[in-house]
Amino acid sequence: MEIKSLPIRPDTARNAVRFIFFVCGLGLASWAPVVPYVKQRLGIDDGVLGLLMLLIGGGALFIMPFSTILLNKFGTRKIIFLSGITLALILPMLLIANSIITMGITLFFFGMCMGGIEVSANAHSILIQKLFDRPILSGLHGIFSVGGLTGSLGLGLLIKLGFQATYAMLLISLLIVVIMFVMYRRLYAHDDEIRINSHHDDKKMAAGQSKWAGWFNLHVLFLGMLCFCAYLSEGSMLDWSAVFLHEEKNAPLEIAGIGYAAFSIAMATMRLFGDVLVVRLDHRVVVVGGGLLAVFGLLVAVLSPSYWGALAGFILLGFGAANIVPILFSHAGNLKGVGASASIPVMSTLGHSGQLLGPALLGGVAQFYGISVSLIVVAFLMLSLAVSYWIYWKFQARK
């Protein structure tokens, strides 16, 4: 549905927000290759490093609940720009901070920047999706994954080519700054967001709503808990796949990390085709079928006698789980009576809580019963997600 006199074409805004998602993945993944440098420079052990890493998630979770206030006051474009520029400034500081305290503060702000840009980029994408009147969010999340691969591989390549880690990170920061300045005016301003929302949604809601409306909406909270389960499955791969392959499946230590890489590539590939799948198969088929495929993949990984079979299971998990989160975000952003600026921070907060807290809880299970049992727990949660989503839409169809 077209709105007259919009200053920016929807396809222009969509291309711009693709670069923003690329920056999200690029910025987050650029941290991973420099962790050994940080550990060596600060002279810290794995325990202290683990506590420092928790501050990244802590910063993201701190800013996400308050994002509604910022988005309603300034609009998503300004928050995207401010978060992106601040991220570019923070990245080199990760290699300059020379004490545990300054590193902790830097990582906390790094997490805040990532949380701010992720919430605002998702909210802006849902706005653009309303103009297209068809799914675009899965493809954008796929671009995030491409940015992540670029960040982890690109920074490592620059360092191998002889660049000092700090200078390599400065090049990443410079790229982020260029993207932010070029794309800023290709995104919709706050006044345009209000016009678009007024055109597509209830005018009273678009004009003004409670800043905390999303936290009191049962539909948002339900979708957010499903998002918690989906993010938890991603977090379990990040934190436990290598350990599982090495200790449970006897994979050589030097290739144990390939499990998460296989999962990530499968997820990125599936997301790039996700929007087409949603149109052709319907969102219920993609979520329920994807959830069941994820369950099957986890069972294959656990029951396989070799690490090659476990790798195949991780790939199936990546294929199945790939488009669940984008679809959940899309639904939350299009609910009647609550705008994306109120619902998306809730979804992001609950989702990242699953990604941050879930693997720690699974670690408790693994300590007493083994990592295989932990992955069975993840499979049960993904099965619950698929069944709950199917029941939810059956109930919605009767209304």
UniProtKB/TrEMBL annotation:
TM regions (residue ranges): 16-35, 47-67, 79-101, 107-128, 140-159, 165-184, 212-233, 253-273, 285-304, 310-330, 342-362, 368-392
SUPFAM superfamilies, per database record: MFS general substrate transporter
Keyword terms: Membrane, Transmembrane, Transmembrane helix
Main location: membrane
Subcellular location(s) per record: Membrane
Highest taxon listed in the record's lineage: Bacteria
Designated name of the protein: MFS transporter
